[in-house]
Structure formats: structure tokens, C-alpha cells
Design goal:
It is built from seven helices and five strands. It is mainly α and 253 residues long. The strands form two sheets. The chain has a three-stranded antiparallel sheet with strand order 1-2-5, with no helix packed on it. A two-stranded antiparallel ribbon has the order 3-4. It is elongated, with a radius of gyration of 30 Å.
Length: 253
């Protein structure tokens, strides 16, 4: 797609401003879904010599459903805690008619299967829950927030400060050469800070593992297995071609 798509008609260099070794290939069927292709400005955060590539794909005719929420919490309705003072009211709130129906259903069951047991247990549970709700009332509790990606263990306070400074500079819409130079300097400081923190973490970790190897074998193997890299997910490119919907992808090869 290099040099033949809107955004890169001239075929911009992708490596050391001298070659196009980073490129995007696609099938004849998929090419009609490309809307844009760009070779982005070089960033040392992505690579030492390569520029990132960005592609845009248009949406297909398939429907895409997206659920939006102003809050990442999910509200759950729960019954208030049990109190012995209201135990008599709990008994009064039991649905006796439903209990009699359940007893009749049990007596009339000739063949006991897992399905019939599950159904009866479910009905008994509903009777108890309804009585508890009418007795003790309900409370609305906020569910857990969606988990955010955790920082690496070596990503310390200095890294966070350097990242914050870099992002602040990058968000500025000033595109003057002077500002671009400031962004580049902030990016270099951010990367150098991360490299320094990562190097220190690895050095400290090696010393810790050498010490544990002699003193605590169990903890040694726990930490060793904990830091193993996970397998990369397998991507179904046929499904990607069918389901793509205004997708932007950035590749750095």
C-alpha cells in the first residue's frame, strides 16, 4: 500500500530517511476497504530507526453495536444484611402458597434428573430471596471499576513524570518547528528515563534472584514463573477482513 494510497502518494521513506523497508501488504479483496495510509513521524519510543505506519479501513455493511456508559461502574442491587431482630418478619414474608406448590411438585416427581433438581432448588431460592428482600430491603452498591492496564514493575515515579511531560507537550496543537523540537526533547527524556529505570530494575531483580536461589527456592521459582512472557494471541485475518469497522492500525516493523 506504500505510495499508492491517500496519505502516502509520494511513497515516504520509513527507515533512516533512506529506504522503504516497512510496508503494508493486502489482498485484492481487502484493498477496496483502505481509506488512508500514512507513514508517521519517527518516534524513538517505537523504534530506533523505523517510522510507524498507520492504516485506516472503512466500515463494512455489517452492523456494529457499541454500548456506551458515563461510568465504568455497574450498579448492583443487593439485599441488606441479616438481622436477628427481623427474623420473625422474614418468616411472615415467606410465600406459603409457592412453598406448597414446590412441595406438591416434589411429591409428584417420579423421575429425578439433574434438571428437575436444579429447577426446584431455583424455586426455593427465589422464595427465600423474595422474603429477605421484603424483610431487610435492598441497597445499591457500585460494582468494581473496569480494570486498567497496570504499569510495568520498573515504571517508577520518574517514568510517570516524564510520560506526563511528554504527553502534555504532544497535546499542544502548536506545529511550529520550535515546538516540534520541544516535543522531540521531551520524548528523548521520556525514553532515557524509562531505559534507566528498566536497567536498574533488571539489575536489582538479578541480585534478588541470586540471593533467593540460595535462601528460598520456593520464592525463587514463584518469581521466575511470574515473569514468564505470555503467548501472543492468534489473529484470524479472515474475520478481521469481514468485521473491520473504521479501524486504524499502527505498525512498526
Amino acid at each position: 500500500m506504500n505510495g499508492r494510497t491517500l496519505g502516502d502518494i509520494d511513497g515516504k521513506f520509513t527507515c533512516r530517511n533512506s529506504s522503504v523497508v516497512d510496508y503494508c501488504l493486502c489482498s485484492a479483496e481487502l484493498i477496496q476497504n483502505f481509506t488512508d495510509f500514512k507513514v508517521l513521524d519517527f518516534s524513538s519510543l517505537y523504534s530506533d530507526v523505523h517510522s510507524p505506519i498507520e492504516i485506516s479501513l472503512k466500515q463494512t455493511d455489517q452492523e456494529v453495536s457499541t454500548k456506551c456508559s458515563d461510568d465504568t461502574r455497574t450498579n448492583e442491587q443487593k439485599i441488606n444484611n441479616w438481622t436477628n431482630e427481623k427474623s420473625y418478619k422474614f418468616l411472615e414474608c415467606l410465600n406459603l402458597t409457592e412453598i406448597e406448590n414446590i412441595n406438591s411438585e416434589i411429591d409428584g416427581t417420579t423421575v429425578v434428573t439433574q434438571e428437575t433438581v436444579d429447577m426446584i432448588i431455583s424455586k426455593i431460592g427465589k422464595v427465600l430471596i423474595n422474603s429477605a428482600g421484603n424483610t431487610f430491603g435492598f441497597k445499591v452498591s457500585a460494582g468494581k471499576k473496569s480494570e486498567h492496564r497496570k504499569n510495568k514493575p520498573w515504571f517508577d515515579h520518574d517514568c510517570k513524570a516524564a510520560r506526563s511531560e511528554f504527553r502534555k507537550m504532544k497535546r499542544n496543537k502548536n506545529k511550529s518547528p520550535f515546538h516540534r523540537a520541544l516535543v522531540s526533547d521531551a520524548e528523548k527524556r521520556y525514553k532515557n528515563t524509562m531505559n534507566k529505570a528498566h536497567k536498574k530494575y533488571r539489575s536489582d531483580f538479578r541480585k534478588k534472584m541470586d540471593d533467593l536461589k540460595q535462601k528460598d527456592a520456593k520464592e525463587f521459582w514463584r518469581l521466575l514463573n511470574e515473569n514468564k512472557s505470555t503467548a501472543q494471541p492468534k489473529i484470524d485475518f479472515d474475520k478481521l477482513r469481514e468485521d473491520n469497522s473504521s479501524v486504524k492500525m499502527v505498525y512498526c516493523i
